[in-house]
Amino acid sequence: MRLKEKTAIITGATSGIGKATALRFAEEGASLVITGRRAELGKAVEADCRQRGAHCVFVQADHTKESDCRKVVETALTEFGRVDILFNNAGIVMKGMADTTPEDVWNDTIAINITAVWRMSSLVIPQMKKQGGGVIVNNGSDWSVVAGRNAFPYVMSKGAVGMMTKAMALDYARENIRVNAICPGDTLVDRWLEKGYFEYSDPVTLGQAIQESSAYIPMGRFGKPEEIANAVLFLASDESSFVTGHLLLADGGNTAQ
Ligand SMILES: NC(=O)c1ccc[n+]([C@@H]2O[C@H](COP(=O)([O-])OP(=O)(O)OC[C@H]3O[C@@H](n4cnc5c(N)ncnc54)[C@H](OP(=O)(O)O)[C@@H]3O)[C@@H](O)[C@H]2O)c1
Questions:
Q1: Pairing with 112, which of 36, 121, 174, 204 sits 20 to 30 Å away (CA)?
Q2: Alpha-carbon distance 153 to 190, whole Å?
Q3: In which domain, by residue range, is 218 found?
Q4: Residue 131 pLDDT > 90, yes or no?
Q5: 221-254 residue pLDDT tens
Q6: How confident is residue 10, by pLDDT bands cut at 50, 70 and 90?
Q7: Average pLDDT for residues 38-67, to the nearest whole number?
Q8: Are residues 126 and 149 in the same domain?
């Protein structure tokens, strides 16, 4: 019960890494406010967290809207009276290069991957100061520390998340607010399957296609959302009490090569 008596906000917990983290935090005794735009999925995650014994409230929210961000923080304060942990997880992946990225894609990426991280942080920090401390974990990427091809808006945004993490860590270190980033490498989430990222046809199976496309990773496989959730748990818990301004890579060794 590493998060007993802690209240956590997890943005974008309707699927993938956010969902896995909500379930992990629930098992560790946290009270939760979880968010996302897809209400049906959010309600299902809320029910799963409650089944694990957690107090959990799903708030339908689009984090590109300031009013929705405020609603999420207000709900946490009304329901639980405090915010100990903010996991800024909501994000989108956009492909393209500098000369092929349309302006709306650039703007959409900045709005959720950068501005929402800043906005949610700015809304919880005054409360954390009042409480005498808190923890913010931002979801970056291995592309917060190295670049990747044909993913220009995404790489640009995750690079910014890395530096935002360090800047906030410095500014609030004396307020006992720790700010770190989890930087996952390629992690197999349902969205990849829904969007048909893997091309395969007989005799190649989906399993084979997944295995072949993960061959570039030193560990020879994609990450699992649950593995990322465990790393987020470490950063969110008191076990990392002297860690701030850190970008924790969980990438199967990808950036070591
Ligand atoms: N999977 C990977 O390989 C990988 C690697 C490195 C970093 N990451 C990062 O991990 C985070 C989670 O992604 P994922 O891989 O778990 O994919 P995912 O399953 O698509 O999760 C993305 C989450 O963000 C939410 N979201 C997106 N836009 C939102 C908005 N405007 N307002 C509120 N919620 C929003 C989605 O909820 P709704 O659609 O319901 O709004 C969803 O819950 C992202 O920041 C991503 O960049 C992922």
A1: 174
A2: 22
A3: 189-222
A4: yes
A5: 999 999 999 999 999 999 999 999 999 999 999 9
A6: very high
A7: 98
A8: yes
Distance 81 CA to ligand 1 centre (A): 27
- Specify the pLDDT at position 81: 98
- Beta-carbon contacts of residue 107 (< 8 Å; ≥ 6 apart): none
Whether residues 122 and 218 share a domain: the answer is no
**C-alpha angle 31-142-147 in degrees, rounded to nearest 5:** 145
Which one of 154, 172, 197, 200 is the catalytic residue?
Answer: 154
Q: How many A from CA of 191 to the centre of ligand 1?
A: 9
Mark whether 205 and 242 lie in a shared domain.
Answer: no
End-to-end CA distance of the chain, in Å? 36
- 196-217: pLDDT as tens digits: 889 888 778 999 999 999 999 9
Q: Is 154 a catalytic residue?
A: yes
If asked whether residues 86 and 43 sit together in one domain, one would say yes
Residues with beta carbon inside 6 Å of ligand 1?
11-18, 35-38, 61-64, 89-93, 112, 139, 141, 184, 186-187, 189, 191
Paired tokens of 35: 């968010």
Contact at 8 Å (CB) between 98 and 152?
Answer: yes
